[in-house]
Structures are given as C-alpha cells and as structure tokens.
Amino acid sequence: MSILEMKVPSPGESITEVEIASWLVKDGDYVEKDQPVAEVDSDKATLELPAEQSGIITLKAEEGEVVQVGQVVCLIDMEGAKPEGAAAPKTENAEAPKAEEKIVEKPALVQEAKKEEKAASTNYATGTPSPAAKKILEEKGIESSQVSGSGRDGRITKDDAETASVPAMGDASSTNGSRGSNTTKLSVLRRKIAARLVSVKNETAMLTTFNEVDMSEIFRLRKQYKEEFAQKHGVGLGFMSFFTKAVTRALKLYPDVNASIDGDYKITYDFCDISIAVSGPKGLMVPVLRNAEDMTFRSVESNIKSLAEKVRDGKITIDEMTGGTFTLTNGGTFGSMLSTPIINPPQSAILGMHNIIQRPVAVDGQVVIRPMMYLAVSYDHRIIDGKESVGFLVAIKEAIDNPVEHLMNGDERKALEL
C-alpha cells in the first residue's frame, strides 16, 4: 500500500498555525490530484488545500481544529481504486420512502386524536381564571389570554397565576414566530480582524475629518469616454482610478499621512502602496496596488479588477495583501452615506468613500443640483496633526472637483491613453 501524508503548507511568513475551516470531501472519498479537499483559515486569508495525488483520502483532523504548519492532516492511499458508480446506494434510497411512511403514519394519527380530544374538552371554562387567580393576574398586569390553564377544562388556577410571568416586549409567548438561534465559531481570519480592529481603537489616537466632493466632472469624463476606454483597454473606467490618483497626489503633498509609527520612531515611505478594500465571500480583504503613484488610469483599473477577481475566487495570496501604506474603502457601494472608517494597521490613515447623492448646493451664488459624495479620513493623531489631515483631504477634494487640471495635466484624452 502506497500512502501519501499530506501536511499543512506554510501560507506565508510568520504564520505558524491554521484552522481547518471545512473539509470539501468526506473520509473514504476518492480524490483526484489537485482537487481542493479542504479550506484552511490563517489569520490573513482563507486558502484551499489541493490533493497532492489521486487516491482514497483518510482525514486526520476535524473541522474547526487548529493545526500547526507541517502537521499531517490527511492520508491519501494512492493505490485506492476509483469507484465505478453508485448503483447500490440508489437502490437503498429507493426503499427509504416506504419505511418513512410507516414511521410517520402513527404519530400523525396520535396527533389528530389529541387535537380532537382537546377540541372536545374546550368549553366556557377554558382560559377563565378562578377568582383567586384573577386577582393575582390583575396585580401582575397579565391578561388571562396570556396564561395556559391547567385546571379542569382548561380553567386558570391560582397556581397557574402565581407561576405566570410578565412577557417581555416582542416576547414569543404572544406570537407563533420562530425563536431559534444558531451558534457558529468565528473563523481564524474573522477573529484576527476583530482583534486588530479592537487594538486600533485602544492603541491609536484615532480621529476622523470630513469633507464633500462634487462628482460632476468625473461623471462627465466617464460618460464621454467610458465606451472608448473600455474598447481600447478592455476594462471599465470607474471611480476608483480617480480616487487612487487623487490619493497618491495628496500623499506626495502631505508625506506624514503616508507613514507608520514604530515605537518611538516614525517611518515615512517614498512610495504609495494603496490598499483597496474588497468585499469577498470570506469578508473584507485589502489587496495592495504597488507603487500606485506611477500607475495610469488604465493600469489602476486593470490591477483593481484583477485583484478583486482573485479575492472573490479565493485565490488572493498573502503577499498581495500585505505592505500597504494607505487604504481606500468604498462603503458607498453598499449605500453608506457617512462613516468613520477604522485605520488598517500599521498604516496611519484611511480614506472612506460614500454614496453619491444628487443634492442642492450653492455654486457662484446660485442653487444647483450636483452629484455629491461625503469623504472621511481617519488618522492616527500621534503622528498626523490636524493641519496635515485636513490639508490632505482638501487636496483630494481639489483633485476630484477638478480632475482634468490636477490629475490629467489638462489633457484628458492623453491621460486616459486614448
């Protein structure tokens, strides 16, 4: 017998353990080489574990179990034969409904009999409290209709009244609605995110400053060049490229925002690695655009599209999500009007974008309707002063309000490579 031991591979530097999130196969199943057999959670991402060879698999770890990198989690018998078919199980299943009918038939009859018995015993006394019970219920402020009587013919006795309690607002005692609940263990990734968010709130001097931007010019540019841009570059012209370029411009003007703190030291970067928050099946991921300051509109859109697809397909790597210097998050895609985003450590600032609303604004003394968006910058006040944070956000506002001048050097077609 030729047995292969499958061990947990290292999902990334500094990660020593993972959790078996779910087995995608059952013990004793035949698996093909490279077939995903399990999903494992690290504190940074959820990754698939592919079969290293074909054969019969034997599981050596339970779902939810934390295992060390390099630990054996399953065995594959490479000499195991691939099953021909499943004719026998189908025959067994075909007989199952008959047995089921016999099992449920008698309880159904018993239940009907109980209903008939209950209906027969219901009369004027049912639900009526005795004088003593009535007094107790009045003192408690409980309606007799909310109490089940245990006395003869369903009469409410003194004991029933004494044991009755006042139902809470929305209590299920007055409805027939479901009262079920379900408890599931948080994944390693979700627990790590929770711990990081709590630590940010506790360990940083986080403040948020707000402003609003007029999206009219960006709307015009997208409407005018959207189809031509897509035909030439094979990717859509979205909002994220404008905001990414606006952010990299502002970071050059205010380098303290593009920094992190390490004990008594401040680390300032001469590059802009922009983390883009993307919603995926396992939660929010933040893949990074490396050296975004050197990217064109086309390259920003192409890279964001590629990274977002990897996140949604579960193929994003640890390296693609680490090392950002600043984060962009767009809650507006979900309808958020305003929020205070939480810093993504060890970064020192994050920009929150929100939904676009047609609102009346004053322009040159006239009230006009414009597509407006609120922006929020949360920052670590330990290394970023209010002057820098406000100036940084105003620089973004300038670029979004007038992208042709500040982001395209006055030549929109050249900037879009058309």
Summarize the structure.
With 418 residues, the chain is of the alpha+beta class. The protein has helices at residues 87-121, 131-140, 158-163, 188-203, 216-233, 239-253, 297-313, 386-401, 403-407, 412-415, and strands spanning 3-7, 17-23, 30-31, 36-41, 46-50, 55-59, 66-68, 72-77, 206-214, 259-262, 265-268, 274-276, 278-280, 283-285, 288-289, 326-330, 349-363, 366-380.
Amount of beta strand: 15-25%
Largest sheet: 6 strands, mixed
Mean pLDDT: 83
What is the molecular shape?
extended
What's the structural blueprint in terms of helices and strands?
Blueprint: E1 3-7, E2 17-23, E3 30-31, E4 36-41, E5 46-50, E6 55-59, E7 66-68, E8 72-77, H1 87-121, H2 131-140, H3 158-163, H4 188-203, E9 206-214, H5 216-233, H6 239-253, E10 259-262, E11 265-268, E12 274-276, E13 278-280, E14 283-285, E15 288-289, H7 297-313, E16 326-330, E17 349-363, E18 366-380, H8 386-401, H9 403-407, H10 412-415
Parallel strand pairs: 12-16, 16-17
Antiparallel strand pairs: 1-8, 2-4, 2-7, 3-6, 4-5, 6-8, 9-18, 10-11, 12-15, 13-14, 17-18
Helix pairs in contact: 6-7, 6-8
General description of the model:
The strands form five sheets. Strands 9-18-17-16-12-15 form a six-stranded mixed β-sheet. The relative contact order is 0.11. Helix 6 crosses helix 7. Mean pLDDT is 83; it is low at 86-120. The two termini are 63 Å apart. With 418 residues, it is an alpha+beta fold. The protein contains ten helices and 18 strands. The chain has three domains: 3-77, RNA polymerase II/Efflux pump adaptor protein, barrel-sandwich hybrid domain (OB fold (Dihydrolipoamide Acetyltransferase, E2P)); 128-163, Dihydrolipoamide Transferase, CATH 4.10.320.10; 205-415, Chloramphenicol Acetyltransferase.
